[in-house]
Structure formats: C-alpha cells, structure tokens
Amino acid sequence: MVASSAVPWEVQAEKCRKVLRDSLNPAWLLPAKQLPPATQLNVSTFFETCKLLSTRELEITATSAVELVKQMASGALTAVETTTAFLKRAHVAHQLTNFATEFMVKDALKAAAELDAYFKATGTLKGPLHGLPISTKEHIGHKGRIAHSAYVAWIDNIAEDDALLVQLCKKAGAVFHVRTNEPQSVMVSLKLPIFGSKLTSQHIDCSNPIYGTTVNPHNRALTCGGSSGGEGSSLGLHCAALGIGTDIGGSVRVPAAFCGAYGLRTTALRNPYQGVCIPGSGQESVRCVISPLANSVEDLNLFQSAVLDQQPWDIDVTLVPLPWRRIEPYQPGQITIGVIWDDGLVRPHPPVTRALQTAVTKLRETGVKVVNFEPYNHQEGFDIITALYFPDAARTQKDILAQGGEPVAALTEYAFSVSRPEPLSIQENWVLNSRRDVYREGYHRTMKERGVDMILCPAYVGAAATLGSGQYFLYTAIWNILDQPCVTFPTGLIVDPAIDCVEVGYKSRSAVDEIVQTV
Amino acid sequence: MVASSAVPWEVQAEKCRKVLRDSLNPAWLLPAKQLPPATQLNVSTFFETCKLLSTRELEITATSAVELVKQMASGALTAVETTTAFLKRAHVAHQLTNFATEFMVKDALKAAAELDAYFKATGTLKGPLHGLPISTKEHIGHKGRIAHSAYVAWIDNIAEDDALLVQLCKKAGAVFHVRTNEPQSVMVSLKLPIFGSKLTSQHIDCSNPIYGTTVNPHNRALTCGGSSGGEGSSLGLHCAALGIGTDIGGSVRVPAAFCGAYGLRTTALRNPYQGVCIPGSGQESVRCVISPLANSVEDLNLFQSAVLDQQPWDIDVTLVPLPWRRIEPYQPGQITIGVIWDDGLVRPHPPVTRALQTAVTKLRETGVKVVNFEPYNHQEGFDIITALYFPDAARTQKDILAQGGEPVAALTEYAFSVSRPEPLSIQENWVLNSRRDVYREGYHRTMKERGVDMILCPAYVGAAATLGSGQYFLYTAIWNILDQPCVTFPTGLIVDPAIDCVEVGYKSRSAVDEIVQTV
C-alpha cells in the first residue's frame, strides 16, 4: 500500500469523488428538481414513477437472478438489456441514497455484449451467472481500479487483479457494474459504553470522509446499516441482481436486514477472500467472510453453487475443500427450530418481536416444530469477540488513519475502544482462541441436547437504526464468533406504531440496554 | 494444570516412574541376563528367540491391523488373545528400548474381554477397530491417568476424560494398552546454528528427565526420532496394531521413518485434537495434528476411516466436516510424481538418495510418470515455520519448565532458540500468517503448473540420526507449513556402507549442511 501523507487528505478524497462523478452516465441521471424532496423519507418506490426506466426495465430489475438467467437461456432476454436496466436503476438509486463509490458502465456493457455474442454463437450460456449484474463493496478489488477500504492513506492503491471471487463470478458469466460504499474502519457500526468510554451523538453508520453517508432507501432518516451498507441499499433497491459484501460481525446481514434484502454469512474459509483490501491481514481469530446479498434464498443458492462448483480451493488452498451441498428441502416435520426472542443482554424492539411471532406462527402452520431457545451465554460470546476484533489495540487501523490524515469519526473510535487499551500479547490471544473454541463446542452441544436444528433470532434489536443512534450488533455477531452459517431475510412486515407498542414499565438491564430501548 | 514447584522435581518424576513400574506385569518381563547385551545394537529380531512369546503370539503381532480385524470377524481370533500378544511383545520391547511411559494391562484385558463377550453374544464386531491394541503418545489424555507432556510441573495433572480421538477409537472397538515416551518440549529434535547459538554435543532425541531416553530398535546407538519417539519404537517393533502420535514438524513421520513404520500426517483440523495435553493451546499459525502410525498404508486407511466415519466434527466443531474419501486407486498412467532429491538447503545422505532411486525405478516400472521436482523456495518455508513455532519466544514453555525445576536439555534450548529472542507482536504474527498463505498458494500453483500430482522426497537427511547428533527436519516440516497431507513409509532397504559412499569433494553449502554431512 502506498501512503500519501504528503498530500492533504481532502485532495486525495476528491480524487475518489472525481472517479465516481466521471463514472456516471449523465443520460441516466435525473435533474435535481425531478428527485423526491429531501424531506421524503421513503424513496423505495420512486423508480416506478421517475420515468427514466421503461416498463420492461422495471420488470427486469424486479426479477430474481434465477429467473433472469432462465430468460437469458431461452433467448427472451439479453445481457445488455439486463445490465442496462440495472445500471439505470443504480444511477437513480445513487441520487436517492448515495450508495455508490464507482460505476463501471463501459466495462459492464462490454462484458454484457460479449456474453450476448457468446450466446448467439453457441446457443448456450457462459455459466450459471450469465448476464447477471453484481454490485460489490468498495474494498473488493477490481483490476486497475482504486481499492482503499475507506482509508485515505490507501487511495493510491490500485488493485493489480480482480479479487478471486470476482474472477470466479466473471468465469460464471457475471457482469460487474457498480461498487458500493462502506463506513470508516469497515466495521459494523458499534456504539457501546465499554472501558469507560462516554457516548457521544456522533456515528458512522455507513459513512466515511471520502464519499459521505449512505442512507436507508425505505427511510432516509435511518441508516442502511454497515459495513456493507452500500450493498444493502443496492439490493434493497434492486440495483443489482446479486451483491457481494464482507462480514465479520454482521456486515452483510445487518445492511440486508435494514434494507429489505437477503444476506448470507457463510462459514469461514468457504468463499475465497483473496483480493479484499483490508488492514490486519493474517488475523485469524475471528475470520471475516466474503458472501452474497440477494433478493431471494434461491438467488443466494445460485451464487454459492456457481462459486463453489468451480472448486476455488484448488486456487486458494486456505479454503475448505467442501462442495456446495445439494440437499433436498427438509419436510416440515423433520426439523426443529429454536427461537431466541431475546439474547438476555439487550431486548429487541416491539416490531422485531412481532416479526418473530409472525414467523413462528407461519412455521407452525406448515408443520415445523418451533421451540423457545434460551441463549447459551451470549455474554461470553460478546466478551470473546470484542476482545478479538482489535487485539493489537487497533494500532494497525490507527496508523493508517494517521497516515491519511482524515478526520476520525467518534464511532470509529468507539469501534476501536472495544479492544483493550494495550495490544494483547500472543499468549493472551491464544487464551481467547481457546475460549472461543470451548464456547463454540458448548453452543453446538447445547443445541444438540435440546434437539434444535437451527435457530431463528432477530437480525438486530430494531427494524433499522436511526442515523446517529447507537447500535448493538450481537444478534448477528454471535454467529461470527461461533462461525455458524446464517441468513437474514425480510419478513414482509413493516413497523406500525399503532401495534408495535413499547412495553410500559420495562426496566432496562444495563447501560447498553437502556440506550437501545430509548433510541 | 497444577504446578508442583514446592516438591523437588526428582520426587515428582519418580512418581511417574513408579506408575510405569507398577504398570508392568512381572510375568512378561525377562531377567536381565536373558536380554541382549547393551552392546547389541539391533534388537528388532530378538522377539523370535526370546521364548516369551508363543509362535501364535509372534504370528499375531506380525499381522496387519486390517487382517487382525478380519480374523476376529471370522471368529478365528479373540480380542484377548490379540491384546495379550501385543502386551507381551510391548513388555519385552520396553526392556530393549525404554519406549513406554505406562502400561494399561488391566484395562486393556478388561476391554478385550468385553469385546469378545460382545462378539459371542451378537456375532458382530463392535466396530472397524474391534480388538486392535493401540499405543498412544504420553500427552494424549486417558481418563484418570497422569498427562504431563514431559513437563515435571504438570505431573499432578490427571486427565478428566479420554482424549476425543481415544474415545472415538474405543467406540470403534479399539483397545488401549500402552502409553509411550516423548522428548522434553515435545518438539521434533532440532539442532541448528541459528541466531548465533553455538552447537553443543547435547541432544534430546526422544529423551526427558522423567523417563530418560528411548532408543531405536534397529540400532540402539541411533535415536528412535521425535517427538512421537515412543510410538516409532512401538510400531517399529510391532508392539501395537496401530499407534497415535502428534505432528507439528515431523513428530509422527520422523519416528515412523527412523523405526521402519508408516506415519501419516493428516491436514490440520481433520482428526480431533481435543484432550491432548500441550502448552500453548490456541496457537493456530502452525497447527499440530494428531494422527496414526501403522505397519501398512491399508492400516492407516483403516484408522482414518474408522475415525472420520463417526463424523467427529459434530462434537468438535473446529474440525473440517469432510468425510474420509473413498477413492479408487489411481491407475499408474493417471498420476505424475515429482521427486525432490535435495531440498537445496541440506543434502540427503547417500543411503537416502539410493532409497529414492530405488523407489523411482519401481514406480517407473509400474508405469507411473516420475519427474524431477525443483523445490519451491524451501528456505522461505523454513523461515516462516521457525518463526511461528515459538512466537511468544517460548515463554509459555520456559515458564512451565521453571515451575517444574527439572534440568533443561541443551537441545530444548535449541528448539526454543529458533524463535526470536523477544515475543512477536500480534501484528508480526499476522504478517507471518499472510506470508504462510502466500507460500502455500505459490507451492500449490507451482505443482499444478508443472503437472505434478504428488511429491516423493526424503523423510529425513539420513536413515536415522545417531544419538547426540544434530537434526535437520525441514524435509518433513515443509509439509506442516504447507499443511499438506503426507505419509512416510519404509523402503525395505537398509544402509550398506559398501555402496552408500559419501561423495568425494562435496562442498557443504552452509553451516547446517556441514553438520549434517559430517555426522
């Protein structure tokens, strides 16, 4: 990485913004006066009325990835049509939510045209992702393009190659059309009174000094979540057929949940992580994963099978050499689902509890056995994962920020402050690794003892956090420290203040709970 | 672990020796005058003439594990007969090589009798390891017995449970009858002039202050190798149908190679490591594996399938959930073997080169394609693995030695001295992890580019090291840093000074090479 401390941070950041501006196709941008007013919070249905997208384009962008591929295989749809539709939608969406860091219009349309030529010549698809536009979180490398991971000091870093996962998707026929925003520190936002820190009103959400803040398309007073926040907006607004983010504590699942998309966290060492630009490579105590966002479970499955059927472990030998499993869907009577209504540390908000109740009712109606699941010591999981996030006392990150010279958001400081003030020794790190393994084994054993096959729980304490509010993310991060696969999915419900009433007389359990209950 | 610093180390060590003495069945020990004289170096054929074992017992102990199970399945052999035969042989072998730390006569015969009763009642075997006596390296836990890992400070540590792998073997019908010796520090012996250390004439081989030195049954002036040295002697002398050791740099394969047995190093996180007593738990940069020794490839396969068919990953969730693969044996024309004649750092001795030549000739005769393989930067592998063995500057181990108060062998100091004098920081450890992954990927890519499916190379620079000589173990350790599976196997050849001539005029490449060429 090339540090650029000699240049003022604003100059460096402006470089990136120019790349973004220059990457836009002016023909697909609406004049400011045609955009919804800043006071209009829900912009998710703006596309239908904005007149930039044709009916056909609206149809295409509302179609699942699985169905789009089917249509391309039948010759009813071309890759250029598909890519154009998603590109146009992404342009408008960017004007609404500020979710993009760079469009790749020319490359995407060229790739799409080549796919169409291939199909015309052979009558077959290039691969299982043929013609599907995919958006990617900024720090996932694209050859010849900047990859900075929201660090100003890294703005002169040009990716020498596509990230391995991008390469595999391209081999499967995918088209990459837009790159998306992430917060400073690339952590899921975190705001907790730990180690004596005092709360402030500042935040990061999905915000950084380079591109500013990405907002939630369903309510622009809310955050899109983080850290794959741009991906949340992208999939929530159907700007891409699939998206790729990274997740070390909920960074794929939280933005998917906030924006109404599906987010998968695979187990570690499943998808190839090579070519992701991130500080602290070689940290293996809590492994970050790279995984998809989509608009259906079937689309997540399509992505995973397209990637793992290429046996990426024969290139990246760190990966587990395990094929993507094709299993027959379980019959309802075959599985037992345990429900975590409340992790015992921070109580979910009323709309979340109502969504869970609805899901449980639906599951029971189909014949699935659903039981309550008392969480297995989530405090222990919290203590381990927060100690392991920045075991070097975040010196790696702080050094890069110091090199860049950009302002450091208070919530970045918070994120770092979950670590001990001084770096852990290697021996202390080992002890935490061992505690982690004991915790994993204990959790798994407990599930088996209770006869529970999978767990249904909130993705977050609320429907989505307001911009500037604190975030408690253990409902997702617990599965990171356990290294369990999980999916967040929309319930189809929306918050209704008339029925989602705050419990009267609830006494908060802790300072963190207090904050979460009152935002 | 309970430290016992208040008690003199000799008193603690004597506790263990008493356990060993009390565990012997006097009826199976030979009077000193019936033993070979100390000057007789090769004791490997003593059993045939010692008259303690019947012809039938000699037959049983010369039979492969696979065949023993077949005989028990047909009713031609009982578990008690089998266990008794191996127990008797192990008693004599212990008098010859000092390889045992504890016999488990009563438990083993009780388990065997239960197996026989089970077979009588049901007509079926308990499992695929039914009635097979297995020896285990001392630091592999057995419920209710001491597990000290050759550290005096840990002598009061009583295992609360069998190690998970022992449990799985018992479920598969195995019998555990003897536990075996290991060197101080439980490292493969290492003696290299690094960081300015001066060579001395001291060594550890398979020696510790508790039980003393285990020697090589084929030549008692040579070491049995380490660190699973007792296991090497055990399998080399057919004292067990199978053995279990641990390997972080060659600790299963070196003793197997030195003693004429087969040794498998699985990839990491394949067999469950839970219940191994070892300092530095939580160290994950170079993972130690627990894996079998045997007297044939088929027996190694039997062990692995018996263990992995039980899906241990459903108990120890750190394990890779990958079944043991049943593959049809390759046809000779389907595979290409690359031969490493010399790793470029230290040249193998003439008998080793002759053994390789013999193997290559035999392989070519069967139609296998064999090509020379230029090693892919083994110096880089060496630099990474030596830095990662004791990244805490061996403080963990030194503290335990200080607690115990026992004398520290010079070669233990050497083993520790490969680490930097001061502990690495967590960030330095991360950098090494990343280098390791880059090296792994590069090695794999190179093999693929050259069309090489597997590599044949020396297990060690010589046939076996003399007691007190230096050891260079990168020929095995390179596969640890690469985390590749490998097997050492006997060639059937023996050293012949008449034909294994030292090259005249060879100029050594380095101080290490010089030492190895002149021992």
Automatic annotation (TrEMBL), chains A, B:
Can you give the residue ranges of the Amidase domain? 81-506
Q: Reaction catalysed?
A: a monocarboxylic acid amide + H2O = a monocarboxylate + NH4(+)
Enumerate the Gene3D superfamilies for this protein.
Amidase signature (AS) domain
MF terms from GO for this chain are: amidase activity
- PROSITE patterns this protein is in? AMIDASES
The keyword Nucleus appears for this protein: no
Keyword Hydrolase found: yes
- In this protein, the active site sits at K137, S227, S251
Q: Which InterPro entries match?
A: Amidase_CS, Amidase_dom, AS_sf
| E.C. number(s) listed in UniProt | 3.5.1.4
The name this protein goes by in its record: amidase
**Gene name, Swiss-Prot/TrEMBL:** amiE
